[in-house]
Amino acid sequence: MLANGITLGMKKKGESTYSDLPGLKEVPELGVDPEKVDNTTLADKMKHSELGIGDPGDLAYKFKWENGENSSYRKLRTVSDAKETVSFEQTFPDGTKFHFDAQCSVKVGGGGVNAAIEYTLTLGLQTDIVVVDPSGE
């Protein structure tokens, strides 16, 4: 499956549906890398470990630059400036959805000769990522 067609939606507290955030160009890996915790005793002949809590890493989404009145940039910048926690829904073309709440920051990228301007949405998770499998399979 190609990444083409992945969408990211956002909804604020009290809203019932996710609003699509147009201009999405790149999405991060979703999941966790659990820490390996050493649990070796003095009687063990080799190291023993357990998997600890997971670290989702940096969740950074890249968007095409657009600063119109109803642009994704303005919506996300407003949420960022207010330090508001909002709900996100990332949807794959096959219908798989990833739901999570996060705070966000928005940073406008630099530029150069013959380079498109982008901005990056970086998310700080406030909940676990919940995977919703597509139905009807």
Short description:
With 137 residues, the chain is mainly β. It is 7% helix and 42% strand.
Biggest sheet architecture: 8 strands, antiparallel
Distance between the termini: 16 Å
Task: Tally the beta strands.
Answer: 10
* Radius of gyration over all CA atoms, rounded: 19 Å
Explain this structure.
By secondary structure, the protein is mainly β. It is built from 1 helix and 10 strands; from the N terminus they run ββββββαββββ. The strands form 2 sheets. Strands 1, 2, 3, 6, 7, 8, 9 and 10 form an 8-stranded antiparallel β-sheet that branches. Strands 4-5 form a two-stranded antiparallel sheet. A hairpin with a 5-residue loop joins strand 7 (86-91) and strand 8 (97-108). The radius of gyration is 19 Å and the shape is globular.
Topology:
Layout lengths: L6 E5 L7 E2 L3 E3 L6 E6 L10 E7 L3 E6 L7 H10 L4 E6 L5 E12 L9 E8 L4 E3 L5
Write out key terms for the chains shown.
single chain; 137 residues; mainly beta; eight-stranded antiparallel beta sheet; two-stranded antiparallel sheet; 10 strands
